[in-house]
Structure to design on (726 residues):
C-alpha cells in the first residue's frame, strides 16, 4: 500500500523527468553524426546538476525556505529548464526528419547490452544503499551527513560520465573496453570496505573533536576517498554503452531503452540491498556479491575471439580468487568493540534501518544502533522504568498505553506491571525489537509474552496517526536529536496527532536527553509542545548532573494533580503496596521540575518546529559539533539548574496551578529542586554550597527517602558528605 501511494504521488513527475535525456539525445542524433560523445556529455552535466541539487536540498534550501519553499525552488528550476528548451527549439528548430524512403525499423538492444544496462543500474543503486549504511557506522547520521555522501556519489558518477565521453572519442574496441572497465569496477568495489576501515581506523567516529565546517569537510573527504573512484567507474558504464551500440538514426530510442533497463535495475537494486542483501548476507558479503556481478558482466561483454575472451576470463578469474581470499569484504568487522574497556560482542544484526549490536561490559548489556548510538541497556533499569511509571501514575485509572520506540524494552515493559487493558509498543527498527526480546527478557517484565501487549514493527508516529484507537497515556522514548528524521517526532503536526489520540484526562510524555541538546533546541521543542498542550509540566527522569533526562508532559485537561489518586495508583504496583503515604508521594513528586504551561515568557515567542521547517533537524547537528569543538555546551549541570531556578521564580510551587491541591506536594517539589542543585553544585566543584542544599533537602523528606538518597550519593559524590574529599 505504501509503495502504491508513493508511486501515485511521484510517478507522473518522475516519468516526465526521465523522458528529458532521451528527448535531448534524439535532438542530438538529428544534428550530429555520432551520438555517444555528446550524449555522454549531456549525462555528465545532468548528473552534476543532480549533485548540486542534492547539496542544495541537504545544506541550503529546507533550512532557509522550509520544505515547501524548497519544493518551490525546484519547481521554478524545472520551469526555467522548460523555458530554455522552448527557446532552443524556437532558435534552432527541429532537424530534418529521415529522408523519404529511408526505413527505420524498431530498435532492438542486443540482449547482453540490455543485461549490462539493467545489471549496472542494479549494482549502482545497491552499492549506494550499502555504502550509505557503511558510512552510518562512523558519522553522526544527520540529514547533512547523508546529503554529503549522496553529493559525493552523484558527483563521482558525473565524473565517470565525463571520462566515458573522453573515452568514446578514442578508437578502442567498445566491448573490450567496457569489459575491462567492469573488471576494474569489481576490484574497486571490493576494495572500498578495506579503504573505509583503514581511513576510519577500524570504524572510529569521524572527526570527534572537529567543529561543524571541519566535520563536514572530513565527511566529504572520506566519502571521496572511499567511493569516489569506484563510483566514477560505475558512472562510465551507462554512457559508454552508447558507444557499444551507437545508432544515429534512433538516438532517442536507444538512450530511452538503455535508460529504461538501467532504471529498472536501479529499482531492483535499491529494494534488494535494503530488504534482502543486508538482512540476509550482511554488508561485507553483499559488497562482495556485487563485485562478483561486475566480473560476470565483464565476461558476458567480452568480445569474440579466443585471445580476447581468454584475457578477460583470466583477469576475472584472478579477481575472483582475490574476492574469496585476501580481498574478501565479508571478513571485516561491522561493529567496533572496545576490548580495552572490557566490551564483548554478543550479537549483531544488519537490516534496512541500520546495524544493531548487543554489547556486554561486565554485567551490563547495551543495544547499539550504527556503532555509536546506545538505544537502551541494563545500566539504568530503574530510570528506564520510571519513564513509563511516571506518566502512568499521573492519569486517573489508565487503561490503554502507547509507546513510541522500544529500545531495550525496559520502559515499555514497565507498563506491564500496571493494571492496563492494552499496551501498544511501536519500534521502527525490527532488529532492535529482536535484540530486546532475545537479550533483555529478564528486564522487560513480559513485554513480548503478555497477551495485553502488541509489539508493532512500524513507525510510531505514522502508526498512531493511521489508527483510530485512543489511549490514556502516550510515551515517546529518548531519541538522538540530530539523527535524520528524529525532528519529525517534535513537530506541531505530530503533537496535534498525539493529542487527537488521547482520551479525556490523558497525558503525553515526551522524554528528552538534555545531554544531547542545547538550551536552544530544548526551548524550541518545549515551545512547540506548549502550542498544542497549554497544560505542560516538566519532570526529571533522574538527578545525574551531566546526563539529565526530562519529560515534557502534555495534559489534555487542566485539572490539578490529585495526590491521593496518585497514591492509590502507586499502591497497585507490587513493590509499593505497603509504602507509607509520605514516602510514596515523595518518590514521585521529587521528580517534578515545574509548570511550563504557566510560564510562557520563559519559552519566548520564537519559531516552532514543524514538518515544513524542522528546526531541530538542522540545529541539533550543528550544536553537536559545536560542543565537540568546545564552542557550545549541552543543557546540563549548573546551566540546567539555573534555568530551573528561573522557572521556579516565575511559577513557585506554592502558586503552581498544577500543585494547587496539596501543600505537601509543593514542599516535595521544592525539595527535589534542592536535591538537583546540591548534586550539580558538587559536580561543579562547589561541594560546600552543595552540602548546604543537601541539608535542606534531607530536612524536607521522610526518613526512608533520606536514607535511600544518602546511600546512593555517598558512593557517587562523597564530597557532599566529607569536607576532606574533593
Amino acid at each position: 500500500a505504501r509503495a502504491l501511494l508513493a508511486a501515485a504521488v511521484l510517478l507522473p513527475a518522475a516519468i516526465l523527468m526521465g523522458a528529458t535525456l532521451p528527448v535531448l539525445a534524439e535532438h542530438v542524433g538529428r544534428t550530429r553524426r555520432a551520438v555517444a560523445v555528446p550524449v555522454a556529455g549531456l549525462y555528465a552535466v545532468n548528473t552534476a546538476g543532480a549533485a548540486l541539487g542534492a547539496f542544495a536540498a541537504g545544506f541550503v534550501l529546507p533550512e532557509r525556505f522550509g520544505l515547501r519553499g524548497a519544493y518551490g525552488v525546484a519547481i521554478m528550476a524545472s520551469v526555467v529548464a522548460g523555458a530554455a528548451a522552448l527557446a532552443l527549439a524556437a532558435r534552432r528548430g527541429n532537424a530534418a526528419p529521415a529522408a523519404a524512403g529511408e526505413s527505420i525499423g524498431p530498435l532492438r538492444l542486443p540482449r547482453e547490452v540490455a543485461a549490462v544496462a539493467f545489471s549496472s543500474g542494479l549494482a549502482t543503486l545497491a552499492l549506494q544503499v550499502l555504502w550509505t549504511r557503511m558510512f552510518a557506522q562512523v558519522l553522526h547520521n544527520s540529514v547533512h551527513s547523508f546529503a554529503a555522501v549522496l553529493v559525493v556519489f552523484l558527483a563521482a558518477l558525473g565524473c565517470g560520465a565525463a571520462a566515458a565521453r573522453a573515452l568514446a572519442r578514442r578508437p578502442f574496441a567498445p566491448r573490450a573496453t567496457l569489459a575491462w572497465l567492469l573488471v576494474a569496477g569489481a576490484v574497486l568495489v571490493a576494495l572500498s570496505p578495506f579503504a573505509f576501515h583503514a581511513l576510519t581506523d577500524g570504524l572510529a567516529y569521524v572527526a570527534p573533536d572537529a567543529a561543524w565546517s571541519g566535520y563536514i569537510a572530513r565527511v566529504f573527504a572520506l566519502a571521496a576517498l572511499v567511493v569516489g573512484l569506484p563510483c566514477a567507474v560505475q558512472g562510465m558504464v551507462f554512457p559508454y554503452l552508447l558507444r557499444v551500440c551507437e545508432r544515429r538514426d534512433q538516438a532517442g530510442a536507444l538512450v530511452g531503452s538503455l535508460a529504461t533497463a538501467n532504471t529498472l535495475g536501479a529499482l531492483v537494486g535499491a529494494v534488494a540491498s535494503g530488504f534482502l542483501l543486508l538482512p540476509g548476507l550482511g554488508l561485507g558479503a553483499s559488497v562482495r556479491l556485487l563485485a562478483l556481478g561486475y566480473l560476470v558482466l565483464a565476461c558476458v561483454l567480452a568480445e569474440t575471439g579466443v585471445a580476447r575472451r581468454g584475457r578477460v576470463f583470466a583477469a576475472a578469474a584472478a579477481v575472483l580468487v582475490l574476492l574469496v581470499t585476501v580481498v574478501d569484504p565479508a571478513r571485516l568487522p561491522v561493529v567496533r568493540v572496545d576490548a580495552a574497556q572490557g566490551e564483548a560482542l554478543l550479537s549483531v544484526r544488519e537490516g534496512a534501518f541500520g546495524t544493531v549490536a548487543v554489547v556486554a561490559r561486565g554485567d551490563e548489556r547495551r543495544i547499539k544502533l550504527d556503532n555509536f548510538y546506545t538505544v537502551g541497556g541494563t545500566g539504568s533499569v530503574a530510570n528506564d522504568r520510571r519513564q513509563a511509571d511516571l506518566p502512568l501514575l499521573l492519569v486517573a485509572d489508565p487503561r490503554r498505553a502507547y509507546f513510541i520506540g522500544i529500545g531495550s524494552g525496559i520502559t515499555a515493559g514497565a507498563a506491564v506491571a500496571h493494571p492496563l487493558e492494552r499496551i501498544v509498543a511501536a519500534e521502527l527498527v525490527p532488529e532492535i525489537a529482536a535484540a530486546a526480546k532475545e537479550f533483555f527478557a529478564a528486564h522487560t517484565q513480559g513485554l513480548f509474552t503478555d497477551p495485553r501487549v502488541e509489539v508493532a514493527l512500524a513507525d510510531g508516529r505514522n502508526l498512531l496517526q493511521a489508527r483510530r484507537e485512543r489511549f490514556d497515556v502516550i510515551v515517546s522514548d529518548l531519541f538522538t536529536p540530530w539523527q535524520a528524521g528524529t525532528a519529525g517526532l517534535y513537530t506541531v503536526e505530530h503533537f496535534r496527532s498525539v493529542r487527537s489520540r488521547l482520551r479525556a484526562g490523558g497525558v503525553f510524555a515526551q522524554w528528552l536527553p538534555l545531554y544531547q541538546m542545547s538550551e536552544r533546541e530544548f526551548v524550541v521543542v518545549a515551545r512547540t509542545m506548549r502550542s498544542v498542550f497549554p497544560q505542560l509540566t516538566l519532570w526529571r527522569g533522574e538527578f545525574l548532573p551531566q546526563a539529565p533526562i526530562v519529560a515534557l508532559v502534555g495534559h489534555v485537561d487542566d485539572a490539578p494533580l490529585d495526590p491521593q489518586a496518585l497514591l492509590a495508583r502507586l499502591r497497585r504496583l507490587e513493590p509499593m503496596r505497603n509504602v507509607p503515604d509520605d514516602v510514596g508521594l515523595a518518590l514521585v513528586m521529587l521528580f517534578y521540575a515545574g509548570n511550563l504551561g504557566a510560564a510562557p515568557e520563559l519559552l519566548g515567542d520564537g519559531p516552532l518546529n514543524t514538518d515544513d521547517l524542522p528546526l531541530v533537524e538542522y540545529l541539533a547537528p550543528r550544536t553537536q559539533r559545536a560542543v565537540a569543538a568546545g564552542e557550545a555546551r549541552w543543557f546540563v549541570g549548573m546551566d540546567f539548574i539555573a534555568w530551573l531556578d528561573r522557572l521556579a521564580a516565575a511559577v513557585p510551587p506554592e502558586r503552581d496551578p498544577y500543585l494547587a491541591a496539596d501543600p505537601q506536594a509543593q514542599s516535595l517539589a521544592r525539595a527535589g529542586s534542592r536535591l538537583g542543585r546540591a548534586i550539580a553544585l558538587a559536580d561543579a566543584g562547589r561541594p560546600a554550597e552543595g552540602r548546604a542544599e543537601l541539608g535542606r533537602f534531607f530536612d524536607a523528606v521522610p526518613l526512608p527517602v533520606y536514607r535511600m538518597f544518602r546511600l546512593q550519593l555517598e558512593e557517587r559524590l562523597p564530597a557532599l558528605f566529607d569536607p576532606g574529599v574533593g
Q: What stands out?
A: The first helix runs from residue 2 to 29. Residues 133 and 614 are 24 Å apart (CA to CA). The chain has 24 helices and twelve strands.
